[in-house]
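Limitations
The structure tokens in this dataset are predictions for the assembled complex, not deposited experimental models. Users should treat interface geometry with appropriate caution, especially where small molecules or nucleic acid strands are included. An illustrative entry is reproduced here so readers can see what is and is not provided.
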Amino acid sequence: MKTETKLIHFSEGIELESGEKLNSFDLMVETYGELNEGKSNAILLCHAFSGNHHAAGSSEDFGIGWWDQLVGPSKTIDTNKYFVVCCNNLGGCAGSSGPSSIDPSSQKIFGKSFPQVSVLDWVNSQKMLMDKLNIECWHFVAGGSLGGMQALQWSISYPDKVKKAGIFAAASKSSSQNIAMNEVARESIRKDENFHNGNYYEHNVIPKNGIKTARMLGHITYLSEEHMDSRFGRKFQDEGSKVEESVSFEVENYLQYKGEQFSELFDANSYILMTKVMDSYDAGKDKPLVEALKDVKAEFLIVGFYSDWLYPPERGKEIQIAAMNNNIRSSFVVLQGDHGHDSFLFSSKTYSNLITNFIES
Amino acid sequence: MAIKLSKIINSWVPENSKVIDFGCGDGSLLKELFENKQVLGYGVEINDTKIEKCIEKGVPVIKLNIDKGLNDFMSSDFDLSIMARSIQCLKNPDLALNRMLKLSKRCVVTLPNLGYWRCRINLALGKMPITPDLPSSWYETENIHLCTIKDFENLCLKENINIKDKVFINRNGDQGGLSKINPNLFAVEGVYLLEK
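Predicted assembly:
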């Protein structure tokens, strides 16, 4: 698979939804396959909360890509046929401009002075990337969870630039419960003694415990009760492989391990910023969603999963109803999904066929 | 779907109308309506393999159990809803019929006729009917609410549903012969255009 990873600089900067401006910024971008002559085979993948530009294949820094099960040569999204683009979103911590990168104006780490961005800002920055890559129209824009929100926003913001949108395990806005969960995560980071009000870089420490706890909570919300029961049940962790002395059950050990691993990779300020992006998104902007979709021209494929309790299928159904009321050619399919909210990341026969058939139809 | 049946339905669908097809199967009928009548159409289906086929054809589809989920899509304003050979599979065919007529101005319903003479002979012999149109045994059939032409028209009367048009299909798949004279005895299928 032809893969290119590069940091692209945007010297023109970007006006943010908040009214603030980034005078210049960088996006870490990965592409797979090749753009055809007619430029009609470009696909944009939008990553979810903790994802990054590395969607497919294996890399030294980021391991196996977050959507590798579905993206690659002869896979669901076939990189032999399509030119697939994925970027680390603004505010992230995998190479694009974010709280942990250097502010060009002060030559210091941004820290918490990095402006709050939004789904709309992400879409606008991806549009700038699109122009830079000389792509006129995306054949398909897709993502799961927060990535699905970006796919939806693309179809709203740039109706002529998206032919098809894949909105998976997503919602047009976060629920009160979603926001509540995120606030617990943020609180655990803020109350870590190493957080230093977001300026932990200066103290050469990271609020590791806070991020770890936040991630452990997050992880629970990404899985389903059934999945956890079948995977861990009430099995005890064997002594030899305990990552923490105090754990008794396998599930505890698993969360400890995952949390620990994540806390070493993810920036705390990015974590807070990303959760706020998710919380603040509302495709309808306080108005009914049906109004927000009135100019949409893209076709939709909306997929929800019964085992997903973070963005349950009802959220997808709301988008479907608003789409139908706007005469948008939209499909809505609910699949069982074995992995709770995370189901969108995993390939299954029906899920994979739906996506392939939708792209090819 | 038999050619005849889709031809009849085609003739009742206005050009450029907004259509919803309950129990749309692999989306063939809607695909035909896209091509012949330039409709905007949505299918409703519960079977994943059939849903994959719809998407393959470019037919928008919603995965939904009609018994449970019909209410959710009430806010959409359709010109026509279609329920071909599915109404007898529903838990509450009467409620479904009324909901369809709230959802759309008109609706097309087709149903197998339990009054067909071969069914009656089966019953007279003390057995549940098995015919080319109703091939499954009683324990494996999805048809939990079979009725005769007469039963269906009585239901329409009771629910104040107007039968705008109707066509009866005989066992050869056409509309002629005895099924015109006594549909309740000789038609294998009734095809109705309904309005409230």
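Some entries come with short summary sentences. For this one: The longest helix of chain A spans residues 176-190.
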